[in-house]
Specification:
alpha/beta
Length: about 300
């Protein structure tokens, strides 16, 4: 940890935080997260909202090293098949967040993650929201699992819209025909999640997360077309969740969030490493566009 602290300490100390403790993966014994505790906040910080949190719990992304690569890639595959909730790393992350929230209250805890860590933070945030704890959440380059990565594959905007519209009607139709959408409890659960608003940061040149852009923009377009009621059904499902429903298994798509404050880095990125990297989000010269997308239940 010494080398890591030597590089990272300046930024957390600059914001008056100290490292409380690290989270260790029991499988490969790697550090996958850290809990930072606020040492001191100037009184002027409390003159506006949001107030600074007492704790920030952050989760790292994938590290391709001899020490961490194998376990991280296994967890990435769990994300693809919506099985991340079964992993020991997620359970340990959720336990750390839950215990901190119970101790100091949800308003005093923020969570954050990048890439794989964003998937963990998103799943933790979802589960906390189901218990009506709406945590301030920051997700950097979170993976969006899609059978057809439309944002990357189709550049013609008209064709892209057509594919998405057809997909929405087909998804809504299949969900209705299979009676997946008949359970009022599930519908209320999605509406309950819509009260939680994570901050999602994506780059259009990053195929891992760029689909979030089209996902939210398309929902807005369907409302403008007057067919939002079909999209409100379709937006709750992925291809994988429909297949699971067909064989009698429940599968909640990891990447689907009803409401989000989406920030898009519209600056050009030289390569995937830069487009998916965490560094872009603390360099002030980048151009960003931000917009709130809220799920409408009615």
């Amino acid at each position: 940890m010494n080398q890591h602290e030597a590089h990272a300490s300046p930024w957390w100390e600059r914001f008056h935080f100290q490292l409380n403790h690290v989270l260790v993966d029991d499988t490969d014994l790697s550090y996958f997260g850290a809990i930072y505790e606020l040492k001191y906040a100037h009184p002027c910080f409390y003159q506006s909202t949001p107030y600074p949190p007492r704790y920030v719990i952050a989760f790292r992304g994938t590290l391709i090293t001899n020490f961490t690569g194998y376990q991280d890639m296994k967890l990435n595959m769990r994300c693809v098949f919506a099985k991340l909730y079964e992993s020991l790393r997620f359970r340990k992350a959720f336990e750390a967040v839950w215990n901190t929230v119970i101790t100091v209250g949800p308003a005093n805890v923020w969570i954050a993650g990048h890439s794989l860590g964003a998937s963990i933070a998103m799943l933790v945030g979802k589960n906390m929201a189901k218990s009506r704890y709406h945590l301030e959440t920051y997700l950097f380059n979170p993976p969006f699992i899609s059978v057809l990565p439309i944002e990357q594959m189709i550049k013609n905007e008209t064709l892209k819209d057509g594919v998405r519209i057809a997909g929405s009607f087909m998804t809504a139709g299949i969900a209705t025909a299979m009676n997946i959408h008949r359970d009022d409890t599930e519908e209320d659960l999605f509406t309950l999640l819509s009260e939680w608003t994570p901050y999602v940061y994506v780059n259009p040149s990053d195929p891992i997360c760029s689909e979030f852009i089209g996902y939210f923009q398309h929902r807005e377009k369907m409302d403008e077309m007057g067919v939002g009621k079909y999209e409100r059904i379709a937006t709750q499902y992925s291809f994988g969740s429909l297949v699971s429903g067909a064989i009698g298994r429940d599968m909640e798509p990891l990447h689907i969030v009803p409401t989000a404050y989406l920030t898009v880095n519209i600056s050009s990125s030289e390569d995937l490493r830069r487009a998916h990297g965490i560094v872009q989000w603390w360099q002030p010269h980048y151009e960003w566009q931000a917009k709130l997308y809220k799920f409408k239940s009615l």
